[in-house]
Amino acid sequence: MPGYLARNTNRRSIASTSDRLPPWRYRCGTKRNRMNERDWDKVAGTFEQEIFNVPANDAKGIIRGWVENLASPGAEATDLGCGVGRTLALLADHYARVYAVDVSSQCLEVAAKANAGRSNIAYVHADVSADKNSYPATDVVLCINTWLNAALEIREGLIDRTCRGVKKGGHLLLVVPSLNSALLTAYRHLQWNLRDGMDPQAAQKAAALNSHGLEHGLVSIDNVPTKHYLREELEALLNDRGFQVLDIEKIEYPWSTEFDAPPRWMKAPFPWDWFVAAKRVR
Ligand SMILES: C[S@@+](CC[C@H](N)C(=O)[O-])C[C@H]1O[C@@H](n2cnc3c(N)ncnc32)[C@H](O)[C@@H]1O
Questions:
Q1: Mean pLDDT rounded to a whole number for the chain
Q2: Ligand 1 in contact with 271 (CB < 6 A)?
Q3: Ligand 1 centroid – CA 145 distance (Å)
Q4: Which of the listed residues 102, 143, 152 should we mutate to test ligand 1's pocket, taking the one with most ligand atoms within 8 A of CB?
Q5: What is the domain-level CATH number for residue 53?
Q6: Does 31 score more than 60 pLDDT?
Q7: Where does the pLDDT of residue 3 fall: very low under 50, low under 70, confident under 90, or very high at 90 and above?
Q8: Alpha carbon of 83 to ligand 1 centroid (Å)
Q9: What is the structure's pLDDT at 2?
Q10: Counting atoms of ligand 1 from 1, which one is nearest the CA of 154?
Q11: Residue 194 in domain
Q12: Which residue has a Cα nearest atom 26 of ligand 1?
């Protein structure tokens, strides 16, 4: 699902002020309408350029901190939607066995090459939204920007199987796009337009989000409808699936991830993805 990885791209592709379009760096998606295995396969070779690197931009080390804190001798972990394996080394260093799961065999190939020296990683080619789990439930499941699909019937399968992939008493570490952040970005865009002297109507129009289904969290990133989440929605959906939410935090990014050359006055609050740590209690 390519759209969701770029960060500014989307937001700005929404705006008509093309001089504000951010560089093609995708936070959540890519420029192409990737949604299926073939789409993700196509991006495998250019993943680093096309797909925003969340772990590398987690300036406070929230993901690393939780991965390290939950590690214990013999514990097993899954990297669900592992892509080209950016977080595999971190997991493999702290867990006895790691399952690297992805729908894209090409991405898995790149991941396996990059981690060739690590014998405790098993690579699993699976569509988590549909397949019966072909890997065991583990103590920790790390899932970074994989719950992006706009289609509810696909997304529900993805969410259910992700949750079932966590052992009872184990933990889910989740990163998803924030709907609040998308709305904040639209507000910043409006402010910018007004400061530039646009009339209010034109300023609002130019800053409007590209969205069909905003009430369901669907915001297009580079014309790819991408699911964004509310904090409260995450709490509710995880509680429904037997999880106790332990922590919800913002992984914050600079405004340059949303806009090309953002003005100096555009400071905090910054855009963010949600990070969630939740324990499976039933
Ligand atoms: C935005 S990328 C994130 C990759 C990685 N987690 C990272 O942070 O670099 C989303 C990944 O999820 C995978 N993915 C999407 N839908 C999937 C599904 N239904 N089953 C398994 N993997 C899926 C894609 O192939 C892609 O590698």
A1: 89
A2: no
A3: 7
A4: 102
A5: 3.40.50.150
A6: no
A7: very low
A8: 5
A9: 38
A10: 19
A11: no
A12: 83
User: What CA–CA distance (Å, rounded) separates 257 from 261?
Assistant: 9
Q: Is 144 in the pocket of ligand 1 (CB under 6 A)?
A: yes
The whole-model pTM stands at 0.91
How remote is the CA of residue 82 from the centroid of ligand 1, in Å?
Answer: 6
Q: Alpha carbon of 72 to those of 91, 140, 246: distances in Å?
A: 12, 11, 18
Structure tokens at 227: 């699911």
Task: Tell me how far apart the alpha carbons of residues 50 and 242 are, in angstroms, rounded to a whole number.
Answer: 35
CA of 3 to the centre of ligand 1 (A): 12
In this structure, are residues 158 and 172 in contact, taking their beta carbons and an 8 Å threshold? Answer: no
Q: What pLDDT is stored for residue 35 in this prediction?
A: 60
Nearest CA to ligand 1 atom 10: 146
**Do the domain assignments include residue 200?**
no
Q: Ligand 1 within 6 A of 127 CB? A: yes
Structural tokens at position 210? 């590209």
Amino acid at site 158: L
Q: What is the residue range of 125's domain?
A: 3-185+208-280
In-domain check, residue 190: no
**Number of domains within the chain:** 1
In a domain, 195, yes or no: no
At 52, phi and psi to the nearest 5? Answer: -55, 135
